[in-house]
Amino acid sequence: MTEDIYDLIVVGAGPGGYVAAIRAAQLGMKVAVIERRESLGGVCLNEGCIPSKALLDSSELFAMARDSFAGHGIDVSPPKLDIPRMMARKDDVVKKLTDGVAFLFKKNKIKRFKGAGVLLKGGTATGPHRVRVTDEASGDSPQELSGKRVLLATGSTATELKDLPFDQKLVVSAREALCFESVPKHLLVVGGGFIGLELGSVWLRLGARVTVVEMLPNILPNMDRKTADQLMRSLKKQGMEFLLQSKITKTVRTKEGATVTLERKDSSEEITCDRILVAVGRSPLTRDLGLEESGVRLDERGRIIVDKDFQTSVPGVYAIGDLVPGPMLAHKASEDGVVFAERLAGQSSQVEYDIIPGIIYTWPEAASVGRSEEQLKQDGVEFAVGKFPFSANGRARCLDETDGFVKVLASPDSGRVLGIHIVGPRASDLIAEAVMVMNFGGSAQDIALTVHAHPTLSEALKE
């Protein structure tokens, strides 16, 4: 019997891997995908982007019913929280989307193998490369696949702190924080990045006390400073507490949870809590892929080194998404996947890494694209600043969502947009116009001359 030799074997079916597989199949390649989970979609669909947004929307509706309906002339009894039903809705959203990916695999004749994939030594620029697939849960014997090329797209995992190891009960990652069976009394969030702020927002709205501990002087250190500061002020108004320039030095477990000792510049204090969410970042999932044995090189941060075609130091082996340098974002991984497949097919596609948007789905939301004021100053680039508050936007007034602003950074000579930063209602949607303008090298004048419907939130960008 003749062995199947695939044009492409993809290891990992997250937003980078499954998108690359589908695009490669559309371009006529015979594709196999290896994924250890039962469902497709990776961290993003199963325990990241999608379930967190489902809970963020549910918690936002609950908070509105509790705090805001009366101001609109809507009298309701105090809303009752049903956590199991809320979690069931989240799971249903996830299942529909992962089932959708499975349908696309079937439609595009992509062969799926369940298990962990390990790259075996050998192979050339055009193959055959071999990947061993092991599914420990099934107990079946490992099988080997042959392919002309292999794409590594296994994504990343939550970074664990040495002194606060995950135990899935008291000390948790984002995965467990999306599945609490009840509202924590006091949730301690370690890390002032977007994951901690988003999940902290969910449980804050549902009634938890939430304290964010951050070692640095500011939250969201890579975001435009004024935008991040405005977001922190808004979250403080909602009751979120922040302890900056602080670190945990001791954790004593109790019946109710833990007593945590925090050290600050000139003082220390103890805090009691019943849950600790560690959200200090994510690390590439490069372990147990056979990289060292195969000769795939990593950089000093543990990421796979690739060229403009996403090819690693081993000809015929490629990597995308969280495994390679760049922002660890689902939409970045997906773009990597599309461009990888198209370049493999001989097209000249490329990812515009300088204009990948970043979004924080708190309330209000924050979104940015391009350069920040701090980055432009550091590089000695002259810029002009335009800023408009949502408090002067008619639609925002109607929504009672007036916190925040839109800020445009542009070249003072040509008007070319250098960066756009938004904190306010539906910033996640508004940033799309900003990305489009920058993608085509547009100017601030181009935005100003474009007719925006009235009354809309998007008018804030024009103003």
* Strand runs, count: 22
Q: Beta-strand level of the residues, as a percent range? A: 15-25%
Helicity, as a percent range = 25-40%
Distance between the termini: 68 Å
The largest sheet, given as strand count, sense and whether it forms a barrel, is: 7 strands, mixed
Please, could you describe this protein's structure?
There is one protein chain. The protein is an alpha/beta fold and 463 residues long. It contains 14 helices and 22 strands. Strands 1, 2, 3, 4, 5, 6 and 17 form a seven-stranded mixed β-sheet that branches. It has a five-stranded parallel β-sheet with strand order 8-15-9-10-11. α3 runs parallel beside α6. The termini are far apart. The mean pLDDT is 94.
Protein traits:
463 residues; alpha/beta; seven-stranded mixed sheet; five-stranded parallel sheet; 25% strand; globular
List the helices and strands and how they pair.
Blueprint: E1 5-11, H1 17-26, E2 31-35, H2 42-47, H3 49-67, H4 83-107, E3 111-114, E4 116-119, E5 129-134, E6 143-152, E7 156-158, E8 171-172, H5 174-177, E9 186-190, H6 194-205, E10 209-214, H7 225-237, E11 241-244, E12 247-253, E13 258-263, E14 268-273, E15 275-278, E16 282-284, H8 291-294, E17 317-319, H9 330-344, E18 358-360, E19 365-370, H10 373-378, E20 384-389, H11 394-399, E21 405-410, E22 417-424, H12 427-439, H13 444-448, H14 459-462
Parallel strand pairs: 1-2, 1-6, 2-3, 6-17, 8-15, 9-10, 9-15, 10-11
Antiparallel strand pairs: 4-5, 5-6, 7-16, 12-13, 13-14, 18-19, 19-22, 20-21, 21-22
